[in-house]
Amino acid sequence: xxxxxxxxxxxxxxxxxxxxxxxxxxxxxxxxxxxxxxxxxxxxxxxxxxxxxxxxxxxxxxxxxxxxxxxxxxxxxxxxxxxxxxxxxxxxxxxxxxxxxxxxxxxxxxxxxxxxxxxxxxxxxxxxxxxxxxxxxxxxxxxxxxxxxxxxxxxxxxxxxxxxxxxxxxxxxxxxxxxxxxxxxxxxxxxxxxxxxxxxxxxxxxxxxxxxxxxxxxxxxxxxxxxxxxxxxxxxxxxxxxxxxxxxxxxxxxxxxxxxxxxxxxxxxxxxxxxxxxxxxxxxxxxxxxxxxxxxxxxxxxxxxxxxxxxxxxxxxxxxxxxxxx
Amino acid sequence: xxxxxxxxxxxxxxxxxxxxxxxxxxxxxxxxxxxxxxxxxxxxxxxxxxxxxxxxxxxxxxxxxxxxxxxxxxxxxxxxxxxxxxxxxxxxxxxxxxxxxxxxxxxxxxxxxxxxxxxxxxxxxxxxxxxxxxxxxxxxxxxxxxxxxxxxxxxxxxxxxxxxxxxxxxxxxxxxxxxxxxxxxxxxxxxxxxxxxxxxxxxxxxxxxxxxxxxxxxxxxxxxxxxxxxxxxxxxxxxxxxxxxxxxxxxxxxxxxxxxxxxxxxxxxxxxxxxxxxxxxxxxxxxxxxxxxxxxxxxxxxxxxxxxxxxxxxxxxxxxxxxxxxxxxxxxxxxxxxxxxxxxxxxxxxxxxxxxxxxxxxxxxxxxxxxxxxxxxxxxxxxxxxxxxxxxxxxxxxxxxxxxxxxxxxxxxxxxxxxxxxxxxxxxxxxxxxxxxxxxxxxxxxxxxxxxxxxxxxxxxxxxxxxxxxxxxxxxxxxxxxxxxxxxxxxxxxxxxxxx
Amino acid sequence: xxxxxxxxxxxxxxxxxxxxxxxxxxxxxxxxxxxxxxxxxxxxxxxxxxxxxxxxxxxxxxxxxxxxxxxxxxxxxxxxxxxxxxxxxxxxxxxxxxxxxxxxxxxxxxxxxxxxxxxxxxxxxxxxxxxxxxxxxxxxxxxxxxxxx
Lengths: 326, 500, 149
Description:
The complex is a heterotrimer of chains A (about 325), B (about 500) and C (about 150). Chain A is globular. The longest helix of chain A is centred in the C-terminal third of the chain and has 22 residues, at about 300-320. In chain A, strands 1, 2, 3, 4, 5, 6, 7, 8, 9 and 10 form a ten-stranded mixed β-sheet that branches. Chain A contains twelve helices and ten strands. Mean pLDDT of chain A is about 85; it is low at about 1-20. In chain A, about 40% of the residues lie in helices and about 20% in strands. Chain B has one domain (about 1-500). Chain B has a two-stranded antiparallel ribbon with strand order 1-2. Chain C is built from five helices and no strands. The mean pLDDT of chain C is about 90. At the B-C interface, helix 9, helix 10, helix 20, helix 21 and helix 22 of B face helix 1, helix 2, helix 3, helix 4 and helix 5 of C.
C-alpha cells in the first residue's frame, strides 16, 4: 500500500525534484526524444533506461515521444537542436540504419548525429507456423527456388527491418530476383506480422526475436534461424554461423543515444560515464533481458563504428536488390 | 468449477487495499480525462505509463485498464452535452444523446449512459471470463477476407444509422475512405495526396477529423444561437433520473448491444470501431420506436454505449492472449506488461493466472466504481449546460485546440482542425452527416490493407470474398441491411396495400 | 431553375468534383498495380469513381424532390471561430500556451461581442489559469507555458 502511494506520487514528483544547482552541465532538465510511439520497443527501452539513470544524472530526464515519418520527425528535431546536451535522441535501427539505407531523400543522414553510446542489441529470429513444412531455413530456400512467388513473408511495413532483413537472408542464401521470388505482406507492426504467421496468411517472419518467444514456447511457432553469434535462450534454432552465413550477424536491431553532430565534448563524456553506470542497474537489465534484448554498452567510438558498419551492410543490400523508396 | 477457483483467485488478488486504490485512481482519472474533448484514453494511458513502472505488474495493468475503460465512460459525456465526440463510437452516442440534451433530458441521457456502460462492461467481463481460453484462437480464424467483410458491415451500418438516405450516407463513407488514403501507403510506401506537405505524410489524425467535423462545426453553429441550452427548470434528482417509460426501454437494447459489442470486441482493431455502429443499425431496424431514432431515442443512447463498453472489455482477449493490440491504447498496455517482463501470448493465462484473473476481477470492481462515481456526477455535468453560450463555447474552443495540439505537439494539426471545422459546417448546411464520414475515415486504411492482402493471397481472384463462409455470411448481412434500408419494405407494403 | 434549388445542388456537385479529383489523381500519379498485387492507386481510383457516381445520384434525387432551402451561413460565427483557432495556433508558437489560451478566448469573445469587456478579460484569465492547473500542473503535458516553442 505504502509502496503504491509512493509510486503514484513519484511520477508527479520527478519533475519537481532536482539536484542542488551546479554551475556546469547539466543545470536544467534534459529532453530525451523517442522518435517512435509510446509503448513500442524503443519507448520501453528508453523509459527503462531513463528510470535507471534518474538516480545517476543530476537533472531530470524528460522522455517524450516525437513520432512521425518512420522516426524522421523526432530525429530531425534532435539534429536541429543545440549541441548543448539538453536535447538527445534515442536512435534505433529503424531511424538510423534501415531508413537511411532505403530512402536517399530522408531529411537527415547518420553523420549529422554524434553517438554517445549504443547500449542494446536485438537479435533477429526467423519463425514459421509449427504446422509448416519448413523445418530448416534450407527447406524454405528450396521451396522459394522451386516455386517462385509461392512463398509469402510478413513484415512490420515497407522499409521495416523485417522487410529488408528477410530479403537480406534470402540474398545470402543465393535466391535471385527476390522481389518476384517471394510475396511480401507488409503489416502495421511486429505483432501483426507474427499473427499473419499464426493464421497461415504468411509463411515466415524474420524480425526481433523477443515477441516471437511466447509463441515458440507455446508450441505454435518454430524458429528456423537466429542472427546472434551464440544460441539464444528459449529459441532452439541454429545461429547464422552454424548455417555458414556469418555475414548475417549484421542483421540485428539496436538502440543507442545520440545528440546533434555538434554535441559538446563535455556532455558526451558525461553521458559515457552515466551510461556505463546506468546499464548496470538490475531493474533495467531485468526489463531488457525479459524483452529478449542483449544489453551491451559500446564506447562512443565503437558506437559510431557499429552504426556506420550496419548502415553499409544494409545499404549494400538495398542497392543490390534495388529496394530504394522515394 | 475451475472458473470459480480462478475467479476466487482473481478477487483475492484484486481486493487488497493496494489494488482497490489503484483501480479507483484509474477509473477516476479515466472519467475526468475522458470528459475533456480530444483527450481520450490514449493520452491518459500514455501519461500514466511512466508512473506504472514503479508499480507491480498487476497493479500497473489494473491502473492502466481502469483509465482506459474509465475514459470510455467519460468520453460519451462531451458528445451528449455538446455534440463533440472524440471517437467514432462516441459519435454514435451523440446521434441520439445530443438531441436528448437539447430537449432538456441531458441528465437522463447521462444516467442511461452510465447504466448501459455498466451492463456492457459486465457482459464483456463475463464473456472474457468464460470464453477467453476458447476465444484466444477465434481471431486467428479470421483471415484478411473476413476482416474486410467485418469492416464492410461496419460501413454499411454507418450509412444506415443516419437519417438522410442511403445515397448521401454512402457518399460520406466514400469521402471518409478517400480522406483516409492521404499519407504514406502501408503496402507500397508510396505517398498519396499529400500535396508535398510533410505533416500529411503520416495521414490526418482521427482526433483532428472528429474535433473538426463535430466540435468546431458545433461551436460555429451554436455560439450565436440561444444564449442557453434548454435545461429542465429544476435540476433535482427527479428531473435527472429516467422515468418509468424510459426504464422499460433499457434492458433489451442494453443486452443486444452488449452481445454485439462482445462479439466484435474480440476482433482486434476493426471490431471495436464498428461495434457501436452495427449495434445501432440493428436496433434501428428492429425497434418499435424506430421513428424516434436520431431525435433522442433512449435506445439510441443505450445500444452504442453498451456495445462500446462490452467491446472495450473483450478487446483484452486478443491483446493478452495473442499479443495483438487492437488499438494504440492497447499497444501501450502491452508495453506496460513488457516493461514488467511479462510477454503477452498464448501462455499468459496459465503462466500468470493471478495477473489475468486479477484483471478480470478488477474489471467487475472498476465497473461498479464507475457506476457509483458517475451517477452523482450527472448533476454536475448537466449544470455545464446552464453556462451561457457566450462563455461556454470560447472555453470549448480552447479545449478543442489544446486536445488536438497535445496529441502530436504539432500546430499544423490545429490549422487542419479548423479546415475540418469549415468542412463540417458546410456539410451541416447541405444536410450531409459527419458520423459515416468519420467511420469511413477510421476504417479506410485497414479496409484497404485487408482487401489488398486478400487479393494477394487469392492470387487476384475477387471471388475469395464470397467463397469463404465467414466473409460470405458477414457480407450477406451487410447486403441485407443495405437492401432493407433502401427499399423500406414496410412503406412498400403499405403502398401496395393502398393501391390494391 | 430557382435559386434555392441551384444552391442545394452545389453539395452533390462538390461530391462529384471531389470524387473525380481523387480518381484523376490516382490515375495520373499513382501505380494501379495488377489484380493480384493492387497498387497504391487502385483503391482511391475506384472509390473516387464511386463517390462521383453517388454524388450524381444525389443530384438527381435532389432534382426530383421538392427543393430544400440551404440555410445562410453564419459569417459572424465563422469569423469568430476562425479568429479564435488562428490565434491559438499563432500565439502558442510565439508566446506559449497560456498567452495563447488567454488570447483565443479574448479574440473569440470580442468578435462575438456578447460579453462586456470586463467579462471577456476575466473569462480569458480564468481559462488561462484553468488550462495551467488542469493541463500543465495536473496532466503534465510537455507544452511550454510561456515563451516561443
